[in-house]
Amino acid sequence: MDKDCFSLEMAVRDYECDLQGVVNNAVYQNYLEHARHEYLKTIGIDFAALTAQGINLVVTRIEIDYKTSLASGDRFLVEVRLERISPVRIGFRQDIYRLPDRKLAVKALVTGTALNAKGRPQLPEAMKDILDRV
Question: Mean pLDDT lowest for which of 6-15, 61-70, 78-87, 120-129?
Fold first, then answer.
């Protein structure tokens, strides 16, 4: 893991598995979202504060490659790397690794933006400053 990578360890809960005994494909998006939100908190981006200012962070696209399945009780690590996609779009490169063997389970690119009070894409200055450093 490099210095620009955030990681969060989690565990699969029984109710997240489907009839085949593995994590349902839609649940991986919850894991990715939770890790993104935790990451944003660590870099000073507060969803509630932005919303109060009329700024909404939104996901515009998710690309997920499923590599191997996680099962009930598995521990796993979600890694997050932030990147600028365009002047108004941000990308989160995210990987999920099963622990302890670090076998890749999911590789994803989540693209998003911020919408101003008029519903137009506009990244807040705090986010621009962070993106300039990555």
Answer: 120-129
Number of domains into which the chain is organized: 1
Mean pLDDT of 110-114: 97
From the CB of residue 77, how many other CB atoms can be counted at a distance below 10 Å? 18
Instruction: DSSP for the chain, please give it.
Output: --TTEEEEEEE--GGGB-TTSBB-TTHHHHHHHHHHHHHHHHTT--HHHHHHTT-EEEEEEEEEEE-S--BTT-EEEEEEEEEE-SSS-EEEEEEEEEETTTEEEEEEEEEEEEE-TTS-B---HHHHHHHHH-
Rounded average pLDDT over 12-18? 97
CATH of the domain at 109: 3.10.129.10
Q: Is 74 a catalytic residue?
A: no
pLDDT at 122: 92
**Domain of residue 71, residue span:** 5-133
Cα(16)–Cα(45) distance, integer angstroms: 28
- Catalytic site residue from 18, 46, 65, 129: 18
The Cα 62–Cα 123 span in angstroms is 19
